[in-house]
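dumping this here before i forget
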Amino acid sequence: MIDESRVPTFETEPAALETASAPLESKPAREVSLFWRTFFLLSLLLVGCIVAWLQTFRALEYEPRTLQSAQQLASLVNLSRAALVHSDSIARVSLVKTMADEEKVRIAPREPGDKFRLYDADSLSRTVSAQLSARLGPDTVVAREVNGTPGLWIGFSIDGDPYWLQADPSRVELVTGKTWLIWLATAAVLSLMGAALIARLINRPLQKLSFAASRVRDGDFNSSRLNEAVATSEIRQVNIGFNQMAQRLSKIEQDRALMLAGISHDLRTPLARLRLETEMSVADAEAREHMSADIEQVNAIIDKFLDYARPDHMEPQRVSLNEVIEAAVFALGNQPDVAVKTSIPDDTWVMGDAVELNRVFSNLLQNAVRYGRNQTTGVAEIDIGAKTKDQWVLVKLRDHGPGVNPEMLSQLTQPFFRGDASRSAATGTGLGLAIVERAIARMGGRFALANSSSGGLAAHIKLPVGKTA
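structure:
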């Protein structure tokens, strides 16, 4: 009988439903796609190569060229100073003019009031300044700007008179400053683009394989064929093997469907004749009743096998959970030793199949009636409740029986498994809960069993919320 006057205990404790549904969630803590993992690893490799190249360039090219440039500048200063010392006044003027025109070297007197900025903007500048001071003397001044005029200025003296020598900065400038940043940014962008391209080329065949596998999982064998003419030999072999596997699975699925049709036809007909002959030929009423019960049990076992072997492919539709549970409870009939309490919000819709859902709840109710009777009263008390959370509908169906040994909980959904002695006493195939788990999985949901904290076994079902078209 159905009793909606009392609210099931788990509705007064909403946390219990959420906690009990936790086993339904089994997602990895961190999930990274193969593309991004490959891209990240390639990027690390490329960045490491760029850093190694920079260090190699610095050791083999950057520092030696800096020292060479400083030596050339020191030689230029010494040669200019020697030429000016050993020339007369007329030749000195001509020499200064020729150096400015031909060598881009300007020599000017150094005044006490000259304002200058030292040549120490970066490591290259400081290295050049240190080398010039070591070669020309500690009183040497190296500046990058004198009286607002930029350039490479070197202060030296001739017979005690101070002078400035202005040289072309390109004599010592390597690729520095913003130029370095531009080149590094360009190299980094090109490297990352190359890494993304390589990762995509690696990931594309696996994406196609993953899609094809998902189609096979859903029972669509015709849309899962992969290209067997790709250039890469390893991918070609994988595609050929996968296509052959899909063809064999398709053939197995066809054979299974044909076998199920044969079982349904070839076994039910003789069973029906056997039952008719039993009722007509057996005189003993008690023996006739037992034989009819045995035939009914064989017929029920055949139904269980057919339910369990149904194809996995299913197109979920919007189904009223209220109507499905009401129909399943109504099918129990008005048994005096069965009490069902329901607490389901009105207009609760899920995505699934109405026939499959009815089969799910019928199996769960039959299981609770058989094994979940109260050991004190002998009545099968069953509580059914549901609630909507996010994009899921959580359903809980529990009995008030002795429960199950915790070590056996994970085995209850295995085909042909029956629990402890109290649960294996009744006749059956051990397929009921296995059928429930398979049906829920086909509808995109999850199923779990747990012992209730207040006694009895609780079945937790998680189904997608029904969406309007």
